[in-house]
Amino acid sequence: MTENSLILTEQHGRVGLITLNRPEALNALSDAMGQQILAAAQAFDKDPGIGAIVITGSAKAFAAGADIKEMAAKSSVQMYISDWFSVWDALARVRTPMVAAVAGHALGGGCELAMIADFIIAGENAKFGQPEIKLGVIPGMGGSQRLTRAIGKAKAMEMVLTGRIMGAVEAEQTGLVARVVPVESLLEDALATAAVIAGMSKPVTMIAKEAVNAAFETTLAEGVRIERRSIFACFATDDQKEGMAAFMDKRPAEFKHR
Ligand code: CAA
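Above: inputs. Below: predicted complex with acetoacetyl-coenzyme A.
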């Protein structure tokens, strides 16, 4: 385990685990914390020994938002010049699949960080919300866009305009989270799910992630074109040859890039 004070990183087989570690502030996301999360995720991304990343918090709080105390006195110009929150755009560009294991509060930037991950597995006590409106601001780490794409306009608009918190059951019903599990088995479940991904070909999971994400960026025709080029690119990998040969030989695939 490596301690960077604001986060902990560990390797579980081929899964890189990032644990937010600021319990005294319910994992409020300071700028320094964002930099540490990004550095850890980028290091895992470049590591051929890592095939998937899990990001998690504590049983009480995944993260209670961006750090309000750090932001409160900032001017608009200071935020503009420093490009505040841009660290999270860089995190969204990490190509290795990332699973968020969310228990407790996932509010504001916490909900947005969870949505930057490729999918969310939630503990039964998870609470999602974008309460920024109560602070006189709006979401700043992608929430107005990713929440709307995840759960649709009506519910996203209601949550962003009123600050209403959504529980785990509703989050699953609306498609915000992939699955709800007991809090006690959340991390184990997320690590096991990530291990399944990490057992695939890393370049191919990266290509798959890019193709699915294209659905949020472009038209259907262009998205299908991206998908078609991407599957053709898979045929340039030795892992495609191995995967299909293993099927025909009736044996498990031994991917080279995992
Ligand atoms: N920033 C800074 N500190 C925070 C914080 C945040 N987002 N959330 C909690 N904390 C701190 C509290 O100030 C408190 O510190 P002190 O003990 O020094 O006072 C400590 O964490 C524990 O919090 P509470 O005592 O409030 O705990 P609680 O269990 O009573 O309440 C809570 C929990 C409902 C999550 C409450 O802490 C809360 O409402 N937090 C703020 C949620 C929020 O508004 N998030 C959005 C932030 S803005 C944002 O994220 C912008 C963006 O889009 C990027």
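The chain is about 45% helix and 15% strand.
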